[in-house]
Amino acid sequence: MIRKVVLSFLLLLSLVGCQKEVYDSDVYYEIFVGSFNDSNNDGIGDLNGVIEKLGYLKSLGIKGIWLMPIMESDTYHKYDVNDYYKIDSDYGTMEDFKKLVKKADNLGIDIIIDLPLNHTSDTHSWFVEAKTHVLNGTCDTSDKCNYYNFSETQESGYEYLVNNVYYEARFWSEMPDLNLSDENLRKEIEEIVNFWLDTGIKGFRLDAILYYYQNNVGDNNEFVSWLMDVIHNKKENAFVVGEVWSSNNVILDHYNSGIDSLFDFGISGQEGAIAKAINSSNGKYLSENVLSNFNQIKSINDKAINSIFLSNHDQSRSAGYYNDLNKQKLAASLYLLSPGIPFIYYGEEIGMKGSGKDENKRLAMLWGKENDANNPINSDYPSQINSSVKLQEKDKDSLLNHYKKVISLRNKYIVNKNVNKYEVDNQNIFALDYDGIIVLINLNEDNVIVNIDKKIIGQIGDSKIIGSNLDISGYGLVILEDR
Ligand SMILES: [Ca+2]
Ligand SMILES: [Ca+2]
Question: For residues 456 and 218, what is the distance between their CA atoms, to the nearest angstrom?
Fold first, then answer.
């Protein structure tokens, strides 16, 4: 009898689950494993190092981790995979990885991994075999030669191989582009995807989608749509976020593939919408912008959701251009309280800086302990010993503690709610309505008074209700509901 009741209860729960129209909008955290935390003192961050910091990540309030590539590779950044089934030995073993997935899951934290499919390393066995065929003049459309794109003439984006044969390599001669139309290659990709989903991960971050078919959106979408079917057939609630580093329109067009999410490059970076809003103290512009992006995506695929961020591993770190603490806090408040899935780039929460060459954007996380990981070889950006986690944890006004406060407000009040416009008669104010919970952020450094008859249920700053007016402190953040 009890069993039957439990079963019907479970059935009811699953029915409610099916009818769910809102989306998961938990905060993710992007980690470059090699620079994050070193567990065995060889100077390179590793998977056990990530395990050691799960408590830290939990206390930050995040619910998901994006690991930059962890598969076997010849480079420090590991975007050129030479074995899709192995963990790079710098980072540890498959056992370490499975332990990480399990321990994270116990804390309610999902893991997604970077999946570079546009290209492999030139040391991948597929390319080595193809090269042998090219050398012997034995290429056939059913062998590994067809996994890549070869040509007898030098086309743009092609590199010389041997015997007057060229191969497509858009990013670098050591990263040959894959021919994603090959049926046998697609079978291999299906196996790779299933292999990783079996480890218990939540899903993937797809690298360089724009280059799958070199800016051909239709062909890119055909491949991504095929891949989404493969992934969702294996794991219904998998989450896949993709990189289409391009204009808003091109990004939007890629939502026609049925992908769960794409990064919103238009709001990120030094020239992006968040920076524009902060530089002009125009909160109204930003709330309209994030709402419009969010709704445009829903109009293409109502299950899809925007992924928002300040900067990632390819961009100058945001603390370099939000160069005072108040602006760093303001930028954090704005994107962490916007609709979509916020992705924090490791170290952003302590104001780490880094620009110029890629290595400088991926410096060692400043834990403030004896054995922090080494910076990537070839980086030449000065370290900032004053911004360590250890120091900021002790300072209640630190950027780190601000991130914790804002994420906890997000988790408490706005996660998975519907979002609408909220009119405030002052253009300094960023304003959104999450099912009756109103979020206001003041982009003016001075107080602003607006006419709002509600009560404050959460805030950062010292805003006050005075009669039917709200006095919002400079850069203040307020969460309101009806009296
Ligand atoms: Ca290590
Ligand atoms: Ca390509």
Answer: 48
Residue 23 banded pLDDT, cuts 50, 70, 90:
low
Q: Which residues contact 17 (CB under 8 A, 6 or more apart)?
A: none
Which among 122, 207, 264, 433 is annotated as catalytic?
Answer: 207
Q: Could you say which of 110, 177, 243, 433 is catalytic?
A: 243
> Is 159 tagged catalytic?
no
Residue 229 has pLDDT above 60, yes or no: yes
* All domains in the chain, ordered by first residue: 21-120+181-419 (3.20.20.80), 125-168 (no CATH), 420-481 (2.60.40.1180)
Q: How far is CA 328 from CA 11, 16, 199, 324, 398, in A?
A: 46, 40, 37, 6, 10
427 pLDDT above the threshold of 50: yes
Task: Look up tokens 């961050």; give the residue.
Answer: 45
The answer to whether 370 and 336 have CB atoms below 8 angstroms apart is no
Give the model's pLDDT for residue 16: 41
CA–centroid distance for 364 within its chain: 19
Rounded distance from Cα 88 to ligand 1 centre (Å): 11
Q: How is the beta sheet containing 419-421 ordered, strand by strand? A: 419-421, 429-434, 437-442, 477-481, 455-460
Tell me the DSSP string of 78-129.
Answer: --SEEEEEEE-TTT--HHHHHHHHHHHHHTT-EEEEEEE-SB--TTSHHHHH
Q: How far is CA 205 from CA 97, 111, 231, 287, in A?
A: 17, 10, 12, 26
User: Residue 336 corresponds to which tokens in the numbers above?
Assistant: 């962490």
Q: How far is the CA of 313 from the centre of ligand 1 (A)?
A: 20
**Of 236, 208, 202, 235, the residue nearest 101 (C-alpha):** 202
Mean pLDDT across 220-231: 98
Ligand 2 centroid, distance to 169 Cα (angstroms) = 8
Question: Cα of 388 to ligand 2 centre, how many Å?
Answer: 40
Catalytic residue status for 207:
yes
| Cβ 307 vs Cβ 262: under 8 Å | yes
Query: At residue 378, what is the residue type?
Result: N
Q: Which residues of 307-322 are buried (b: 16+ CB within 10 A; e: fewer)?
A: bbbbbbbebbbbbbbb
pLDDT in tens, 4-14: 444 444 444 44
Contact partners, residue 146, CB within 8 Å, separation at least 6: 140, 179, 182, 184, 185
Containing H/E element for 225? helix 217-234
Structure tokens that stand for 205 in this block: 């971050």
Between the CA of 393 and the centroid of ligand 2 the distance, in Å, is 44
- Output the pTM of the full model: 0.94
Give the start-end residues of each E strand in 145-217: 150-151, 158-160, 166-168, 203-207
